[in-house]
Specification:
Strand order of the largest sheet: 3-2-1-4-5
Number of domains: 2
Number of strands: 10
Order of helices and strands: EEEHEHEHEEEHHHHEHEH
CATH architecture of the largest domain: 2-Layer Sandwich
Distance between the termini: 32 Å
Number of helices: 9
Mean pLDDT: 94
Radius of gyration: 20 Å
CATH class of the largest domain: Alpha Beta
């Protein structure tokens, strides 16, 4: 019986979780609402908020898990990628907390943790993918297709060459005057809109790589041209704009995922990351799974966004291998996952 404390502080959410092996005992997230006033995350404000939140969230996680800190076997933490100031708070806390308890620390790559979130268990009925499987990891900062051979062996076989899908959602939402974060707002509006109302150009990128910068630009120009004709164009067509944009992004994502499955012959398919909470994407990948004969795995929505439970489960697999980190390590802002 192994108890792992997970710490996540890569961006603007401070999170702590306790796992018993892969079973989730508790997961706590302190959100930072201050950033909504700025239309995006302000790094300095984020790091300050992490300093205020880190101890309370760990205390609550231990209390909800009904264990004491002395029962912990290791502390897993996000080393990167992310905002360096935010990562420093989590890294420093994890190192000092583990040192005081005399237990090892385990560094975790944030992107690999999103993939491994599919191994979190909350009930005996929870399903887990079998190796090898493909995982489409989609968030505000990253879009990747990952071939997963084991918890330790992962290969990126496709990724964005510029902007991420989540960034396209957020930037388009900002252009339309929607509040931050924009992705959930577009998802909400898309449910009452017509996805075929407007057509936007899709990039022609060879292989399994993605590009979303051109879509953002074409969306901006489309709105600019129509606003010249009708100043209320956005307001009068908001649901249809949201639905059409969302459908375009989903089409781009799934065409490459389908190609990856065909090229690799892998039919165990998972999605992960913040954008995997999008209801349109979840429905579309489920429909594609039926037509392609895939077995598809969708994470619980609470494990799609940044959370410490995924950090803890990635740490658990490393714990089994005795893969511990040094107290001298420092966080990294850019991903080393290749």
């Amino acid at each position: 019986m192994t108890y792992i404390l997970g710490i996540e502080s890569s961006c603007d959410d401070t999170s702590a979780a306790i796992l018993n092996n892969t079973r989730v005992l508790s997961t706590v997230i302190a959100n930072q609402h201050v950033h909504s006033a700025y239309g995006g995350v302000v790094p300095e404000l984020a790091s300050r908020a992490h300093q205020q939140n880190i101890i309370p969230v760990v205390e609550v996680a231990l209390k909800e898990a009904k264990i004491s800190k002395n029962q912990l076997n290791a502390v897993a933490f996000t080393r990167g990628p992310g905002l360096l100031g935010s990562l420093l708070v989590g890294t420093s806390f994890a190192k000092s907390f583990a040192l005081a308890l005399g237990i090892p620390i385990i560094e975790v790559d944030h992107l690999k943790a999103h993939v491994l979130s599919h191994f979190l268990l909350e009930s005996p009925e929870d399903r887990q993918p079998e190796f090898p499987f493909l995982c489409l990891t989609v968030s505000g900062g990253h879009t990747q297709i990952v071939k997963v051979l084991s918890p330790a062996a992962m290969q990126i076989i496709g990724e964005t060459i510029d902007d991420a899908a989540g960034e396209a959602f957020d930037k388009a939402a900002k252009i339309m005057g929607l509040p931050y974060p924009g992705g959930p707002e577009i998802d909400r509006l898309a449910k009452i809109g017509n996805p075929d109302a407007f057509k936007f150009a899709e990039p022609r990128i060879p292989g399994l790589d993605y590009s979303f910068s051109g879509l953002k630009t074409s969306f901006l120009y489309f709105l600019r041209d129509n606003l010249k004709k009708d100043e209320a164009f956005i307001q009068n067509n908001l649901p249809d704009l949201a639905a059409s944009l969302q459908q375009t992004i989903i089409d781009i994502l799934l065409k490459k995922l389908k190609l990856a499955a065909q090229e690799t012959g892998i039919k165990q398919i998972a999605i992960a990351g913040g954008v995997s909470a999008n209801s349109g994407l979840r429905e579309a990948v489920t429909l594609m799974a039926e037509s392609e004969g895939w077995e598809v795995f969708l994470p619980a929505r609470k494990f799609t966004t940044d959370n410490a439970a995924m950090i803890a489960v990635a740490g658990y697999f490393k714990f089994l291998e005795g893969d511990f980190a040094s107290q001298s390590l420092t966080p990294y802002a850019r991903s080393t996952f290749r």
